[in-house]
Amino acid sequence: MQHGNRTMTTEEIFEASHHDWGFSTKVFIYSPTPPCEPIKINFHPVATELYEWLLRKGDVTHLMKGVTNVVEDIYENPFTHDATTLACLTAQVINDSHANYHKESTRGLDQLGVELKRVRIYNELVISSARTCEAVIKQLLHCTQFFKKDYDRVALGGLLFKECRSCKKDDGRASHNISLLGSLAHRYPPMCRAFDCVLGDLQKLNQERTRIAAHSSAPEIFKFSYNESMARHNKDTKELLYKLVHILDHLSALETLILEELNCALKSSDISEALNISKYHTNTTFKYFDKWGI
Q1: Which of 247, 221, 257 has the alpha carbon at shortest distance from 113?
Q2: Which residues, 6+ apart, have CB-to-CB distance to 66 below 8 Å?
Q3: What DSSP character marks residue 78?
Q4: Is the pTM of this model over 0.85?
Q5: How many helices (H) and strands (E) in the chain?
Q6: Where are the domains of the chain?
């Protein structure tokens, strides 16, 4: 990722600090009538659904803004509806990518047309995957006490690594850097260490998004035969999808842990006390470690 005028290394991203945090009042949807108690959690597990869809275990939900009176489908989180749209777009591009393996999908196209279609599908897959991951992380950050201006308008790279805003204001203070995604995982010890392996994949996804969408440049078109073009399509999309499955698996774990904690808080006699902690200890983290072989 770019930081100032240079590219930050994976090691520097790993070394960014993780901060303790608490939930904001925006983490719940509240009943409209007194005593205005929390009635549901204010985010949808988008990464979990897309991950399970990729494993052919479920469907991806699309939530439309302002078109339902069903409480279950109402969210006030500004990133939730966009995240579901982006996840559906990603799923659609993946289906298009799979269909492109079949010769019928390129019937009537000449050699250049086949190559252009290959490049278009790959570009769409990179961009939609990166934007979905970005929206998923921002949806979770909205539920925390992190300042919205620290993540609202930043791209995916800025969620992995950013300068501490307080240090930037104080010239005499030794500066340090923050990982907002690492901080989200930090609440669930030792989950943040398990995210080390996925930070590299997210960085590569962000770099690829930047590479193919940079200003007036365009991907290189090759004079491939049909078989060569399809082989390249197969290789590139498989590599990207392996990374996406890995990323979504970890983001899904984070969604699951946050939902578990918030559901426990909803059952507590004192919700504010239940949420006023810097760490949430649960055996669920170790279930993921067993799954990931950590």
Answers
A1: 221
A2: none
A3: T
A4: yes
A5: 12, 6
A6: 2-292
